[in-house]
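User: Once you have settled down, look closely at the record that follows, taking as long as you need, and be ready to discuss the fold:
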Amino acid sequence: MLDPVLLQIAKTAILERFHTFYKIDKEALYKAYPFLEKQGAAFVTLKYDDHLRGCIGSLMAHRTLLDDVVSNARSAAFQDPRFHPLHERELSNISVEVSVLSEPELLEYDDFDDLLQKVVPDIDGLILSHKGHQGTFLPQVWEELKSPKEFLEHLSMKAGLSPLIFEEHPSIYRYRVEAIEDSFDAIEAL
């Protein structure tokens, strides 16, 4: 189970943009939570009244987990190109979710039917990569796209490709996540 400090970090990273008295003390956090200093990949998802309001993340660990959560929380709130920047008046309607990803592994498959059999609904997050196109769905997307076929077809479209792309045998990577979520107001700021 993930430590709630991840939600506190995400909330404080967002609040720093609105108020100068919020600060993230990296050294104190590293001392109290040594796991934050290890490299990690995380997604931060914001929802407004249960509707997506921003979601940005890293697929591969390339910086400390602390830095990844801070950067992705700010990006989800203020730089997701699908949404206007978050306004302070929205905060009481926002929920925050932090998902920490395992290292993606290449999923070997023979054809589309074999791939459908190997994908684990509600558990697998997937990355589709093909000729410069890439898309990912976190495992939470299974709540909306219930079948492996539907999940994969929508993933291909998210990557800017046709569902027929599976005839060309694109690279598929699988990862798992641990996630923690709470309403913005219920999360204690650092």
Notes: The two ends are 20 Å apart (CA to CA). The beta strands are 41-48, 51-57, 94-101, 105-106, 125-130, 133-137, 171-175, 177-183. Residues 65-78 form the longest helix (14 residues). The chain is about 25% helix and 25% strand.
